[in-house]
Structure formats: C-alpha cells, structure tokens
C-alpha cells in the first residue's frame, strides 16, 4: 500500500491480530530448533500468473516479528507477475523468518488473488466504457485491504460501507411504502451533504418511478438480462448514472458492458476469489 495507507491504524491492528492468532504464546517448532544466532535467507516465489498485491503488508508482518529482518521486493503492487518469478528476497534470523512466513503469505496471496480477479474482469470490458465495481461482500475487518486490492487490479470501489452512499433496495422501498417515499426520506435525512443516492430497480416500471424522483444519482438494474438492460439504459438516457448487478459472470460481462451501462458491480471480486499461489523458499546461512 502507499506510504500513508500502510500506517492506517486498522491495518496495523489487523496484522497484530493475525500474528497473535497464528503464534499465540510462541512458535514452538522454530523456538525449539533455532537459536537467536541462526541466520537465514529466503525468497518469495510466484507459482502462477497474476497481479501482485500486498508487498507493504508482507513487510509490515515481518517487521512486527523482527525489525532486523531485511525484506526487499523486486516488484510493486499492481505489477504483472509470472509463474516461476522470484519477487522478494529476505534475510534475518531463521526463527523470525519462519514465524512470520504464513501470515505474510496469507495477506499477499489473498490480496493478489483479489487484484488478479479485478484485473481479469476489467480487461474483459476494456473499450466499452463500463467500469467494474466491487461490493460490500468482503471478509469482515478486511474491507480496506479487499477494496485496495480491487483498485490495484484496475477496477473501482463502490461505497465503502453503509455510511458513504445511500442505496435503496427493495426491502427499503417496501418498508417506506414506495421507491418515491424512500428517496424522499433519504434526501431529507442527507440534506445538503455530498452523499449520493442509488436506487435498485427490478423492471422498467420501477426504473420510471426512480427517474421521476428528485435527487436520484444512480439507478441499479438488478438481475436484468443484457437485452432488457439495453432497453433500461436507453430509458434512463443519461439522466443519472446506471449500474448492472446480479447474475454477471466472466462469460457474460462483456455483453452487459456493451449495453452502455456505466458500472457493473461484481461480488465475486471479493467473495469468491482464489488466492494467488506464492511460496517462500528458505535456506540457513549459518
């Protein structure tokens, strides 16, 4: 992450929690086998193609275990990496390197997997004008890392949480009495604050109702077919932003993007991602 983001309090706390979870009262195996004088070197090896992410987080993990560990990456977040590529070299106490290994790799593998998936989807819609968005379907307490990785991969962030954008879904509209009443209530609460309102729609009639409301910034088309979405985009006619959501996969995302929709939200960027395969090779030096 960037120089300011790496010191974000929630990230530091997350690293500490992860290390505590793994180490507990101590690394029994490493402490039994190695002394403080045993030194080693190690390398990080990528075992599949992808987009790397989490270099600074890995460094932070090692430094939290032993601030004398030397950790140098030959890549930076967002770089394309290839199967068989060595991306980092480390030197330090043998026990420290092995104690930190799994936690550092867990962060990097997960974040690189998210970045890679975001890149795959972004490349799939390249040239259409549509932007791929993430969702709130993230690992609890990992959201700042998941959303950072999405951006590293070339996609975009939707709202970070419930506090920075109003999204009126079917349950909200049902409880309020209608889409119109829900929008009015949200707009009255938000006032003049610079917070957008998005409305989820299920068909052309609910789109028309959302369009008739004052203060709607974006309309989401939920579980539309590409054919119906093309009609929906034409109906909105740039009066506000448009977003596609639901039932969208790599096989059909291009068809949705070609309807002219502005954004396509993909929960799979974070809820179904596969970690990028990265390992650490280790060698005692004395």
Layout: helices, strands, pairs:
Layout: H1 9-23, H2 28-33, E1 39-46, E2 50-51, H3 55-65, E3 70-73, E4 80-81, E5 86-93, H4 94-124, E6 131-133, H5 143-152, E7 166-168, H6 170-176, H7 179-190, E8 197-201, H8 204-212, E9 218-222, H9 226-236, E10 241-245, H10 253-257, E11 263-265, H11 268-271, E12 278-284
Parallel strand pairs: 6-11, 7-8, 8-9, 9-10, 10-11
Antiparallel strand pairs: 1-5, 1-12, 2-4, 3-5
Describe the structure.
Helix content is 42%, strand content 19%. The protein is elongated, with a radius of gyration of 23 Å. 39% of the residues are buried. The protein has 11 helices and 12 strands. The strands form 3 sheets. The protein has a 6-stranded parallel beta sheet. It has a 4-stranded antiparallel beta sheet with strand order 3-5-1-12, covered by helices on one side. The chain is α/β, with parallel strands linked by helices. The longest helix has 31 residues.
Poorly predicted spans = none
What string gives the helices and strands in order?
HHEEHEEEHEHEHHEHEHEHEHE
Distance between the termini: 33 Å
**Main β-sheet, spatial strand arrangement:** 6-11-10-9-8-7
In one word, what is the shape? elongated
Summed over residues and divided by their number, the pLDDT gives a mean of 95
- Counting helices, strands and paired strands, the structural category is alpha/beta
Largest sheet: 6 strands, parallel
Helix content: 40-55%
How large is the count of helical segments? Answer: 11
- The fraction of residues in strands falls at 15-25%
Number of DSSP strand runs: 12
């Amino acid at each position: 992450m960037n120089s300011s983001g790496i010191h974000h309090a929630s990230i530091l706390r997350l690293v500490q929690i992860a290390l505590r979870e793994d180490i507990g009262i101590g690394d029994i195996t490493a402490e039994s086998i190695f002394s403080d004088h045993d030194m080693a070197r190690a390398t990080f090896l990528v075992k599949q193609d992808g987009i790397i992410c989490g270099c600074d987080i890995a460094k932070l993990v090692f430094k939290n275990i032993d601030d004398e560990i030397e950790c140098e990456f030959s890549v930076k977040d967002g770089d394309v990496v290839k199967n068989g590529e060595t991306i980092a070299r480390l030197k330090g106490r043998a026990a420290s390197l092995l104690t930190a290994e799994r936690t550092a790799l867990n962060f990097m593998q997960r974040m690189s997997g998210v970045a890679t998936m975001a890149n795959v989807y972004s490349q799939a819609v390249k040239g259409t004008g549509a932007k791929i968005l993430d969702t709130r379907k993230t690992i609890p307490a990992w959201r700042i890392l998941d959303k950072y990785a999405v951006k590293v991969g070339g996609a975009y962030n939707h709202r970070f949480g419930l506090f920075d954008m109003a999204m009126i879904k079917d349950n909200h509209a049902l409880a309020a009495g209608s889409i119109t009443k829900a929008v009015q209530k949200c707009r009255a609460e938000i006032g003049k604050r610079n917070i957008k309102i998005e409305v989820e729609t299920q068909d052309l009639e609910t789109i028309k109702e959302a369009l008739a409301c004052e203060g709607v910034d974006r309309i989401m088309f939920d579980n539309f077919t590409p054919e119906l979405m093309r009609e929906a985009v034409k109906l909105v006619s740039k009066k506000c932003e448009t977003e596609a959501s639901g039932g969208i996969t790599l096989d059909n995302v291009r068809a949705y993007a070609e309807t002219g929709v502005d954004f396509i939200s993909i929960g799979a960027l974070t809820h179904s991602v596969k970690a990028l395969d990265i390992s650490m090779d280790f060698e005692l030096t004395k």
